[in-house]
């Protein structure tokens, strides 16, 4: 925008500040309003639904204008940020009354989707991560920082690992090198909110210096990340970005943790999506997270989400959790008491993170003190337990007695929500404050005492104290007693019947009472700021408290789930056998209609004998559910949870791979089959002896014989692999049942059904042996296809099956070519003869090998319409 000759000093100031933040909406404080100008105003009025006006400078030029009252900032700010805009908040940096000329202004905070501390911008049960991504030569460094809790994580690995972390932890914003925009989109897709930074920032030395300076240490060895060079660069970029966006107060970021690939059970992003692990609060879909998460605190809910996407692989750590869950199940009193105390603590992590930025209000400080008292109760309960892990957790809890007592002593019991409202400090904390309060509130008593004292001293019985705006406080004496007035009284006003005087004492009192309110407010703020400063020394121990409470919350939640939903303790071992007795799908089971029981199944996978199960059965019978429940039970066990089974022997698993369902990536221009092959290739290239693989309907995105060939060869590959990974292979290609006769560790199973007349009842029970047909026509009937179409499909099916029995060649193609036409009497004079000729031509030109089931149904429908 060119500078207009008639620009006011205010607009010149606005332009200078806006030039520093060209890619952000600038909220410019003017008096009691935040104003936006020009393009910012157009966006703001549209997003917030507020009026857009024109600001005319008296010249030919004019500027768009939109604003809102400063006290409505919280209401409007989150709407702008949620809409994907960066917002720079420009405040007045001096008191307008004291300013000479134009008031000094400057940006005090930049708010972006990944840098949010306002409660309205945050979901209480989800982290709000700002992620840094660094593209190194052969490695990608990633870092995840939640400024609202102070949690900071660093990781590094190949592109697939970085992608898995980004998809799992779902950062609200990602920063990376400006020169890698194309590569970022190709590697991670276009779903993330991103911001690019200059490439020079992504330097190992600069990043290490940023981290060392922030943590005040000489090396990064204490955090265990000194060897993660790419990760350090990503972490340094995130810290730089925070300082660059006016966030200098980061004392609550007290440590950084490494996420090590080898510590966690690996699931790629396809598996996380296919198993429906995560959902969000606005999503109605049923996910494992929604089923497992019955935590009572926001800290617990956030940790539960991380446990689900990053399950443990260390058997001793898993057993530590499982044993504590078992302890809580047995000790009902401890479990219930600890849960109640955790619930009363509030969101410790987010409360503590508000201290350094001084955005914590008096009520929240009082909540911290209450939380610390509950933590003391939790510590007492847990330290006396018989479980070593619980004792260790309790040992890390710090009730911070000194600061808790100080808060309770200094802050009143029911303080206001804002510190600038005053009346937050208790009595007997500050002598001058108490005196000023007594002056401000007890003025009448003081004046009455003064009047009585002066009456006795002078003998003036009619003496009274009064007040007016001209003279302030005064003593009024009637003319009768004028002779008794002491010499040190100063006459201020003469009335018809009386004289008005002031005394040095009254003048001193007047000065005190008129300045009392301002002084009270000033002293209260000074005491409050001093308390905030002292609280900063307790940030680290209180964050440890928050993390410990989150762990306890999750494990108590596991215990409650086990009791409520009849989950049993899994036995983890270092062998290879997976044996589940009466296993159930945790999500489907919880969403069954009232009174309906889930049909439980036994599943055994043993690389020595039954490495691969080929699972066949009717459509809709529950093949996919059986696959998913095997994976979900394995995953739940690795988080330390009990599982929905009568008993479970589960080997320590390093990777779970799934290829479940048709997930078209059409927006990226990929077909169902291409996505399917990409996901399957990812599995084949990453298997290990401790892997669990679940394949559902491999090859269904292409023609029948292509699909059978691919599915067959994948099963052979997995069987002959030296790793011999445990595999569940659900398929509608019944030809794969032949594999049991050719490969020693392949076993056929099917989901049972019962036929009654022309109907099929799905029994959902697993049984040995293969299934011979898929009941697709029954499913079509259940979906509401016309009876005439269903009858014709049954006729065609019978003819195809008869031909298949007689023909060892290309049975399907031959059978279709020899299909008999519908049994109709045709006449040379019949008006439908031409129609039937058309049908014959359609059938003869069909390439059955390339025909999908849906296309076949559509073609049948087309033929039916020709007969009308």
Would you kindly provide a brief summary of this structure?
The protein is an alpha/beta fold.
Description:
This protein is α/β, with parallel strands linked by helices and 868 residues long. It contains 30 helices and 27 strands. About 2% of the residues have low confidence. The strands form five sheets. The protein has a seven-stranded mixed sheet with strand order 13-23-24-25-21-26-27, with helices on both faces. Strands 3-4-2-1-5-6 form a six-stranded mixed sheet, with helices on both faces. Strands 11-10-7-8-9-12 form a six-stranded mixed sheet, with helices on both faces. The relative contact order is 0.06. Helix 6 crosses helix 7, helix 10 crosses helix 20 and helix 14 runs antiparallel to helix 16. Strand 23, helix 23 and strand 24 form a beta-alpha-beta unit. It folds into six domains: 103 residues, DNA repair protein MutS, domain I (MutS, DNA mismatch repair protein, domain I, 3-Layer(aba) Sandwich); 145 residues, Nucleotidyltransferase, domain 5, CATH 3.30.420.110; 136 residues, Orthogonal Bundle (MutS, DNA mismatch repair protein, Chain A, domain 3); 100 residues, MutS, DNA mismatch repair protein, Chain A, domain 3 (Orthogonal Bundle), CATH 1.10.1420.10; 211 residues, 3-Layer(aba) Sandwich (Rossmann fold); 81 residues, no CATH class. It is 44% helix and 18% strand. It is elongated, with a radius of gyration of 38 Å.
């Amino acid at each position: 925008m060119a500078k207009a000759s008639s620009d006011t000093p205010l607009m010149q100031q606005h332009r200078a500040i806006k030039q520093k933040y060209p890619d952000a909406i600038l909220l410019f404080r003017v008096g009691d309003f935040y104003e936006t100008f020009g393009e910012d105003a157009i966006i703001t009025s549209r997003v917030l639904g507020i009026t857009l006006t024109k600001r005319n400078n008296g010249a030919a030029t004019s500027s768009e204008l939109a604003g809102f009252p400063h006290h409505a900032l919280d209401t409007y700010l989150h709407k702008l940020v949620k809409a994907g805009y960066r917002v720079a908040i420009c405040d007045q940096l001096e008191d307008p009354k004291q300013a000479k000329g134009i008031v000094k202004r400057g940006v005090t905070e930049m708010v972006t989707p990944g840098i949010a501390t306002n409660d309205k911008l945050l979901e209480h049960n989800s982290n709000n991560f700002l992620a840094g991504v660094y593209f190194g030569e052969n490695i990608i460094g990633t870092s995840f920082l939640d400024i609202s809790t102070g949690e900071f994580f660093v990781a590094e690995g190949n592109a697939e690992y970085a992608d898995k972390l980004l998809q799992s932890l779902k950062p609200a914003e990602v920063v990376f090198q400006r020169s890698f925009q194309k590569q970022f989109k190709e590697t991670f897709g276009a779903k993330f909110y991103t911001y690019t930074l200059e490439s020079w920032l992504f330097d190992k030395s600069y990043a290490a210096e940023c981290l060392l300076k922030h943590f005040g240490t000489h090396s990064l060895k204490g955090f265990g990340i000194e060897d993660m060079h790419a990760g350090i660069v990503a972490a340094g970029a995130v810290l730089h970005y925070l300082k660059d966006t006016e966030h200098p107060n980061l004392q609550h970021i007290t440590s950084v943790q490494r996420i090590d690939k080898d510590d966690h059970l690996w699931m790629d992003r396809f598996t996380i999506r296919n198993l429906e692990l995560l959902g969000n609060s606005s999503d109605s879909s049923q996910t494992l997270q929604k089923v497992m998460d019955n935590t009572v605190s926001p800290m617990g809910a956030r940790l539960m989400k991380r446990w689900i996407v990053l399950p443990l692989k260390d058997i001793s750590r898993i057993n530590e959790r499982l044993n504590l869950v078992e302890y809580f199940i047995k000790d009902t009193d401890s479990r219930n008491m600890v849960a109640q105390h955790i619930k009363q603590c509030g969101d410790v992590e987010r409360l503590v993170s508000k201290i350094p930025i001084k955005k914590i209000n008096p009520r929240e400080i009082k909540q911290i003190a209450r939380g610390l008292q509950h933590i003391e109760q939790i510590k007492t309960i847990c330290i006396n337990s018989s479980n070593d892990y619980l004792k260790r957790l309790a040992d890390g809890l710090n009730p911070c007695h000194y600061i808790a007592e100080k808060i309770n002593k200094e802050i009143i019991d029911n303080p206001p929500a804002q510190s600038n409202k005053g009346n937050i400090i208790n009595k007997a904390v500050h002598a001058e404050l108490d005196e000023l309060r007594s002056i401000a509130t007890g003025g009448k008593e003081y004046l009455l005492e003064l009047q009585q004292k002066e009456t006795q001293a002078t003998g003036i019985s009619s003496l009274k104290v009064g007040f007016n705006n001209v003279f302030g406080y005064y003593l009024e004496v009637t003319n009768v007693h004028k002779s008794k007035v002491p010499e040190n009284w100063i006459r201020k006003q003469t009335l018809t019947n009386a004289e008005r005087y002031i005394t040095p004492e009254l003048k001193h009192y007047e000065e005190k009472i008129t300045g009392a309110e301002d002084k009270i407010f000033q002293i209260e703020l000074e005491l409050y700021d001093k308390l905030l400063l002292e609280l900063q020394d307790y940030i680290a121990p209180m964050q440890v408290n928050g993390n410990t409470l989150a762990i306890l919350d999750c494990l108590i939640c596991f215990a409650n789930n086990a009791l409520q939903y009849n989950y049993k303790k899994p036995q983890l071992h270092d062998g290879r056998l997976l044996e589940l007795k009466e296993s159930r799908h945790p999500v489907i089971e919880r969403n069954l209609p009232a009174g309906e029981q889930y049909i439980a199944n036994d599943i055994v996978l043993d690389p020595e004998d039954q490495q691969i199960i080929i699972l066949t059965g009717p459509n809709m019978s529950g093949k996919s559910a059986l696959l998913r429940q095997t994976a979900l039970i394995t995953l739940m066990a690795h988080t330390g949870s009990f599982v929905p089974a009568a008993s479970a022997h589960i080997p320590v698993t390093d990777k779970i791979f799934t290829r479940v369902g048709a997930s078209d990536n059409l927006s990226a221009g990929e077909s169902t089959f291409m996505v399917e092959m990409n996901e399957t290739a990812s599995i084949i290239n990453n298997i290990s002896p401790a892997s669990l693989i679940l394949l559902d309907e491999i090859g269904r995105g292409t023609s029948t014989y292509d699909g059978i060939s691919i599915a067959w060869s994948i099963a052979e590959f997995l069987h002959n692999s030296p790793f011999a990974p445990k595999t569940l292979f659900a398929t509608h290609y019944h030809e794969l049942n032949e594999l049991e006769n050719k490969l020693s560790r392949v076993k056929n199973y099917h989901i049972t059904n019962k036929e009654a007349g022309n109907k099929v009842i799905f029994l959902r029970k697993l049984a040995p042996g293969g299934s011979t047909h898929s009941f697709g026509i029954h499913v079509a009937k259940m979906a509401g296809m016309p009876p005439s179409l269903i009858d014709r499909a049954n006729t065609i099916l019978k003819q195809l099956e008869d031909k298949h029995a007689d023909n060892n060649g290309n049975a399907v193609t031959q059978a279709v070519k020899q299909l008999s036409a519908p049994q109709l009497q045709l006449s040379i004079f019949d008006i439908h003869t031409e129609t039937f000729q058309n049908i014959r031509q359609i059938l003869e030109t069909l390439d059955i090998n390339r025909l999908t089931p849906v296309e076949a149904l559509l073609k049948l429908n087309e033929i039916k319409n020709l007969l009308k």
